[in-house]
Design goal:
This protein is an alpha/beta fold and about 325 residues long. Helices cover about 35% and strands about 25% of the residues.
Length: about 325
């Protein structure tokens, strides 16, 4: 496949590095021309100063959109209307309303839009899903998740601290991943949401910490917390069922070695039968996600994470923001 990348920052570079053999980057675009030229030169691609030119290039088949949140849905919609498949970075938009036209356009133009929830494609997650699907855990009771990092000097001056650009704080940033994973493992939609969001440390109008309890109609529960004041980077997800428990720790790099523990309850109960899986190598989730997306294009199947599942994640986040009457939701589309 032939790609264009719009947004040549950290994530855009990761996406470029994850391309499968035989794929080609035709062009890149970024408002920072120095950054765009660097990525273009590295991949022998065209460098555009206008993202519209990149997505309308006749050679381009797939567009990767890796911009700030306020631009995601707009650029993706233009790409879809140009007949291109789109890999749209998480969270896909600032609100579910911003996804509505995009969903309609994707159907009309018969293209695939994949939303970049790459955490589903970490090897520990893939193995955990395999165990859940095997029935070894029995019915799933609840999920617990913790995710966070500590920011950096000047974090409260960056675009994520500006609600008109970001659409929200840590709940939208890392919380979207935990909500998506909870829906994926529990296999049902959440009907009840209770929450607390606050800003403890950073001088910003958006939240730096969020705490959620989500429940399905079958009383399955997800208890989640995300933080920009986690001074040692942390990722932990626990999935508990009738017959056992899975615990995933780490995402590699500063989050620590990726590790999955399977605690299987014995018939006599007591200490569980324990199996440990470790994945110490480089992060393979980006390549695995892209391979999944390309298979969706080939097979013409609208599998998750797609616009529909993303809209459900964003609806939960929007409900939390409405419950707490945050200022930036005074308008459906903050400017």
């Amino acid at each position: 496949m032939r790609f264009a990348i719009v947004g040549c920052g950290f994530i855009g570079e990761k996406r470029a590095a994850s391309l499968t053999p035989g794929s080609e980057i035709v062009g890149v675009a970024d408002i920072d021309q120095k950054r765009a030229k660097s990525l273009a030169d590295h991949h022998n691609a065209k460098c555009y100063d206008d993202w519209r030119a990149a997505i309308n290039d006749s050679e381009v088949e797939v567009v990767i959109v890796a911009t700030v949140h306020s631009e995601l849905a707009t650029i993706a919609l233009a790409a879809v209307e140009a007949g291109k498949h789109v890999l749209l970075e998480k969270p896909g938009a600032r609100s579910p309303a911003e996804l509505e036209k995009l969903q309609e356009a994707a159907l009309i133009n018969e293209v695939q839009v994949h939303v970049g929830f790459n955490h589903r494609f970490h090897p520990a997650m893939i193995k955990a899903r395999e165990i859940v699907d095997s029935g070894a855990l029995g019915p799933i009771y609840f999920v617990r998740g913790r995710y966070g990092h500590g920011g950096r000097k000047g974090y409260d001056e960056e675009w994520r601290a500006k609600p008109e650009v970001s659409g929200g704080g840590e709940l939208l940033d890392q919380g979207a991943h935990l909500i998506d994973l909870s829906r994926w493992f529990i296999g049902d939609d959440f009907q009840r949401v209770s929450s607390e969001i606050t800003t403890y440390f950073w001088n910003m109008p958006v939240e730096d910490n969020a705490f959620l309890t989500l429940a399905t109609g079958n009383r399955q529960v997800a208890q989640l917390s995300v933080s920009w004041t986690e001074w040692k980077n942390l990722f932990c997800l626990e999935i508990t069922g009738r017959n056992g428990k899975l615990e995933i720790n780490g995402l590699g790099g500063s989050y620590g070695t990726e590790r999955l523990a399977f605690y299987k309850m014995k018939p006599e109960m007591g200490p569980p039968e324990t199996t440990i899986y470790e994945y110490p190598g480089p992060d393979t989730s980006w390549r695995a996600e892209l391979e999944h997306f390309l298979s969706r294009i080939r097979d013409r199947r609208n599998s998750e994470p797609n616009l529909q599942s993303t809209a459900r994640v964003l609806s939960i986040i929007e409900q939390v923001y409405r419950d707490h009457d945050v200022a930036w939701l005074a308008s459906e589309n903050p400017q």
